[in-house]
Amino acid sequence: MHLRPDARRLINYLHELPHRPVRFCPWCDATDLRFRSQPARQRLARYYCRSCRKSCNSLSDSPFANLHRMDQWAAFAVYLLAGWSSVQIAARFGLTSKVYFSWGRAVGVVMAEECAELHQWWTTRQFRENLQPPEHIERQQRAVVTWLEATLNARHARCPKCGGGQTYRIKGLRPKFKCDRCVTCFCTLSATPLTGMIRADLWVDFIKGVMDGQSIQDLKRSSGLGMGASKRWREQFLLLIEALGHSELLGWIVWMRSRRSNEVVSLVRQGGCLDMATRSVYPQGLRKGRFVSKQ
After folding, report:
1. What's the CA gap between 177 and 79, in Å, rounded?
2. What is the dihedral of CA 21, 25, 29, 32, to 10 degrees?
3. 3-state DSSP assignment of residue 89
4. CA-CA distance, 40 to 72, in Å (whole number)?
5. What's this model's pTM, rounded to 2 decimal places?
6. Which of 89, 166, 77, 83 minimizes the C-alpha distance to 115?
7. Is there a contact between 3 and 118 (Cβ–Cβ < 8 Å)?
8. How many Å apart are CA 182 and CA 211, to the nearest integer?
9. pLDDT tens digit string along 111-122?
10. Which of 32, 97, 178, 218 is deepest in the core (most CB within 10 A)?
11. pLDDT tens across 260-295, in order?
């Protein structure tokens, strides 16, 4: 939260960067500049230095020198800070991979110079160097896990039909109850996105993996479920998080998920082995339905 002013300052800086006045020559630091040409559409005003006899503009001494489409740099920084992946940003702006990395490198340099604290925060999460969530995200993660555990381990519930509290739990992992008053059987998960799901013993570990930003392949390998079940479970748990009102946690999950490619690249560079068939960092489990640990 405290970095939002820095983010706004960075975006405003990139928006005003091409139009800032040139007061000295970036090549010789002389102030004897002469206006050389009028700015045309999508062009910058150029100046001529009488000392070194070189021309310059407002971007000559910046990392954005020789880069085009200056009207989109601020919007590019917005998507970069929002955690969009390189593929998504490149498709959004119609950029090639070379142009994307040139823009990203320039934004990173400017961010380090103008907003050092914001750059430190962004770098650790961009390259997954620090996977520790912020305090408010960690509180939301604990709230989701606590709600799920409390729901699964509840011993009593109020009957949705008659409103009576004289209920007892039916044997099983799912929170099913029977009402003595109206003899009605019900499940407390009926009105939630988790209705119809099985294997409740895997839910807590699975949702922790979802909140950590793991891919479908990693969730499949770590849980022992099939690919289709892993996809459905992930979608249902995301709907549950949204239903509980943790929108910031959803944004964090998207951010962590988009950074996984950097984590995989670092793993391979450090000598790690990646299963190319499923592109997972987890080994194949011996039994389905059992979580396995990283090796």
Report:
1. 47
2. -90
3. helix
4. 18
5. 0.58
6. 77
7. yes
8. 39
9. 998 888 888 888
10. 218
11. 666 666 666 677 665 544 445 555 554 444 445 454
